[in-house]
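Structure, all two chains, one model.
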Amino acid sequence: MIKFILRRLLLTIPTFIALMFVTFIAIRLVPGDPVEVRTGEHGISPERLAYFRHELGLDQPVWKQFFDYVWHLLHGDFGVSLSSNEKVLTEFLSLFPATLELSIAGILFAVLLGIPAGVFAAVKRGSWFDHTLMGAAVAGFSMPIFWWGLLLIMLVSEGWHLTPVSGRIDMINFYFEPTTGFMLIDSLMSDQKGAFLSALHHLVLPMIVLGTVPLAVIARMTRSSMLEVLSEDYVRTARAKGLSEFRVISLHALRNALIPVVTVVGLQVGGLLAGAVLTETIFSWPGVGKWLIESIGRRDYPALQGGILLISSLVIVINLLVDLLYGAINPRIRHGG
Amino acid sequence: MALLNIRNLSVSFDTRNGAFKAVDGIDLAVERDDVLAIVGESGSGKSVAMLAVMGLLPWTATVTADRMEFDGLDLLTISDEQRRKIVRRDVAMIFQEPMTSLNPCFTVGFQIGETLKTHFGMDKQAQKKRSIELLEQVGITDPEKRLSAYPHQLSGGMSQRVMIAMALSSEPKLLIADEPTTALDVTIQAQILDLLLRLRKENGMGLVLITHDMGVVAETAQRVVVQYAGQQVEMQDTRGLFRDPHHPYTAALLAALPERATGRVLPSIPGVVPGQFDRLKGCMFAPRCAFATGHCHTVKPNRAPSEQGRALCHTPLVHGQPVILEGSR
């Protein structure tokens, strides 16, 4: 097992090198640099421009900038954000819990709704529930996040006044220092009446928006996987043993059907963080995604490079965890390796 | 009274192209200490009839019968719960593919223990003790260690032994073995058959053996039902069947046994079993039958009396010669 983990970790090294290179180049291919963006329409004298560029090291050849960057990275230095003058890592870590909270809520929403829905659709195959669910899943999967988000805001927030439009909590009535960074937990610990409900209230819409695509994928995957498993010999054996239909479906069939679903959930996590960028922007959710979008506008090279690298490492770690989880539910993997 | 009593059982499946009758009018009775073999080619409806008894057919199936009783219970009107708690306890079934019939995600111990818990409410300790006994009974060495094995760690023969142990765990009155040796090596086949026969005697249960292997029938069964294209074409005791088959199909099957072949070329039955769309007006076997007349092709045969093995034939064979039944034409 430890050998397996080590091998998987070694395999991530080339991924990291490619990642660093691609983000580094891609940002520099975008027209404009941090200095030009800051001067804006006022203009700047060529001497001043050269001075600032020299200051930031932008006058160096690109390959030298890259190696400088990698050198600093290897020493654990992600650089300093050009817009806030704060260390990139510090800034990232302060914003990250918000993103994590939203992502966890989104994936929980998708898993807790998607798996039962998929199972039910498979068991009642061909029923109106099955057809409705699968139709909705195609729609959900095809929905552009920003459009779906705006639609929900218009309907639920503007039309029915059920949820707030943006933010993580009602900041006029509640204030407390972040301890964990997770608003749900912090609000509970703050002992302020209604704070938790307010946080929950704010979370619902972004969670639905972010969770919709994974929900659709998970429901469809669970259904098709379940349909396949239900016709397996061992399901017939389980019935022949006199087990209740509930036990046959939820234990004997589902346990096997979950194997491909876990893989899909793992793959969705990558997409989830990409979705978080859009969702956070729509709902003014103060997380990493919104920060990255703003950093693009400011051509904040260190913040972008660091942020993308950190997010990517997270995706890599999650995929590794999913592989380990895969082994836990599928004995053939556990003993085969 | 017979343990399992079936009169005129038919099963049809709804398919895209209309109903398909997989089992067509089967009668059979199994006593408490009987070994009954059901013989037929693939697609002759052998398994389907027994799956109907267990209520394990897919939802596309429609079961009809004049009578279908197990141990005094009417299987046609029984509730789902009774079926689960009584029928599936007292009738156990093992299948053709032992490797795919065990759940790959659970250990052997879990899968046997689960049955013990369901039917007898045993606790973990008792489950373990009884599981070890059962594994010993089916001839698995080092049973305690095997409890924590997963199915993929077992060979085919071993898996079938585990399936048998699991079937025995509910202390059934009747064991249905659906081609239990088809997927196994020849050497293992004999072991598994011996095991089944021994366990039947030890546990005093009825045994229904579904097979397409006449050799297996000769070695094991007391009585034989021969099926063809969903119909029951003959029923006899084993000795009588091998000595004097009454239905031309049975006779042809026996003639095709390598042990019985006399010439250089092994005899075979020409043609194929009629499928869903070429069901015949008359006798299903007529196109392949050496004794068929024009009458056979157009008129459905009646059942011959039991002296002629209840053969479904216009001219059942007696000592290899067709005889014309009184009143059949």
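The interface with chain A takes residues 54, 56, 80, 84-85, 87-89, 92-93, 95, 97, 100-106, 114-115, 118-119, 150, 152-153, 163, 166, 170 of chain B (CB under 8 Å).
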